[in-house]
Amino acid sequence: MATVIRMQRGGRTHTPYYRVVVMDSRQRACGRVIDDLGIYHPCAKPEPQIEVDKQKALAWLYKGAQLSDTARTVLSNHGVLAAFAEGKK
Hints:
Radius of gyration: 13 Å
Low-confidence stretches: none
Largest sheet: 5 strands, mixed
Mean pLDDT: 89
Strand content: 35-45%
Shape: flat
Distance between the termini: 22 Å
Order of helices and strands: EEEEHEHH
Number of strands: 5
Helix content: 25-40%
Number of helices: 3
Protein backbone atom coordinates (compact mmCIF):
# COMPACT_ATOMS: atom_id res chain seq x y z
CA MET A 1 0.00 0.00 0.00
CA ALA A 2 1.31 3.45 -0.90
CA THR A 3 1.14 5.52 2.27
CA VAL A 4 1.79 9.17 2.99
CA ILE A 5 2.32 11.06 6.24
CA ARG A 6 0.38 14.31 6.01
CA MET A 7 -1.40 16.97 8.04
CA GLN A 8 -5.17 16.90 8.53
CA ARG A 9 -6.71 20.26 9.45
CA GLY A 10 -9.21 20.79 12.22
CA GLY A 11 -10.36 23.68 14.35
CA ARG A 12 -12.20 26.91 13.67
CA THR A 13 -11.57 29.82 11.35
CA HIS A 14 -8.30 31.56 12.28
CA THR A 15 -7.53 28.96 15.00
CA PRO A 16 -6.39 25.83 13.18
CA TYR A 17 -4.82 22.73 14.59
CA TYR A 18 -3.47 19.82 12.62
CA ARG A 19 -3.35 16.07 13.19
CA VAL A 20 -0.30 14.28 11.82
CA VAL A 21 -1.78 11.18 10.16
CA VAL A 22 -0.86 8.28 7.88
CA MET A 23 -3.17 7.83 4.92
CA ASP A 24 -3.35 5.84 1.70
CA SER A 25 -1.93 8.15 -0.96
CA ARG A 26 -4.30 6.80 -3.62
CA GLN A 27 -7.41 7.96 -1.75
CA ARG A 28 -8.94 11.41 -1.43
CA ALA A 29 -7.47 13.90 1.01
CA CYS A 30 -10.41 13.40 3.39
CA GLY A 31 -10.24 9.62 3.22
CA ARG A 32 -9.80 7.07 5.98
CA VAL A 33 -6.91 7.56 8.39
CA ILE A 34 -4.68 4.50 8.84
CA ASP A 35 -2.78 5.76 11.89
CA ASP A 36 -2.70 8.92 14.00
CA LEU A 37 0.84 10.04 14.87
CA GLY A 38 0.20 13.21 16.85
CA ILE A 39 -0.86 16.84 16.74
CA TYR A 40 0.55 20.20 15.69
CA HIS A 41 -1.11 23.29 17.16
CA PRO A 42 0.51 26.40 15.61
CA CYS A 43 -1.76 28.92 17.38
CA ALA A 44 -1.21 27.63 20.92
CA LYS A 45 -0.11 30.21 23.45
CA PRO A 46 2.63 31.03 24.47
CA GLU A 47 4.34 28.93 21.76
CA PRO A 48 3.31 26.39 19.09
CA GLN A 49 2.64 22.89 20.39
CA ILE A 50 4.00 19.77 18.68
CA GLU A 51 3.22 16.30 20.04
CA VAL A 52 4.32 13.46 17.76
CA ASP A 53 4.89 9.81 18.67
CA LYS A 54 8.46 9.40 17.38
CA GLN A 55 8.40 5.60 17.50
CA LYS A 56 5.25 5.38 15.38
CA ALA A 57 6.57 7.96 12.91
CA LEU A 58 9.89 6.14 12.55
CA ALA A 59 8.09 2.82 12.07
CA TRP A 60 6.04 4.26 9.21
CA LEU A 61 9.11 5.87 7.64
CA TYR A 62 10.95 2.54 7.73
CA LYS A 63 7.94 0.92 6.08
CA GLY A 64 8.33 3.37 3.18
CA ALA A 65 5.75 6.06 3.92
CA GLN A 66 6.33 9.31 2.04
CA LEU A 67 6.12 12.74 3.68
CA SER A 68 4.17 15.77 2.53
CA ASP A 69 6.17 19.01 2.53
CA THR A 70 4.48 20.40 5.65
CA ALA A 71 4.73 17.12 7.55
CA ARG A 72 8.43 16.94 6.63
CA THR A 73 8.98 20.39 8.19
CA VAL A 74 7.09 19.54 11.38
CA LEU A 75 8.80 16.17 11.85
CA SER A 76 12.18 17.72 11.09
CA ASN A 77 11.65 20.39 13.77
CA HIS A 78 10.61 17.65 16.22
CA GLY A 79 13.77 15.58 15.52
CA VAL A 80 12.18 12.56 13.85
CA LEU A 81 13.99 12.95 10.54
CA ALA A 82 17.37 13.26 12.27
CA ALA A 83 16.72 9.94 14.04
CA PHE A 84 15.59 8.41 10.73
CA ALA A 85 18.79 9.57 9.00
CA GLU A 86 20.91 8.05 11.81
CA GLY A 87 19.05 4.76 11.50
CA LYS A 88 17.71 4.68 15.06
CA LYS A 89 14.59 2.67 15.79
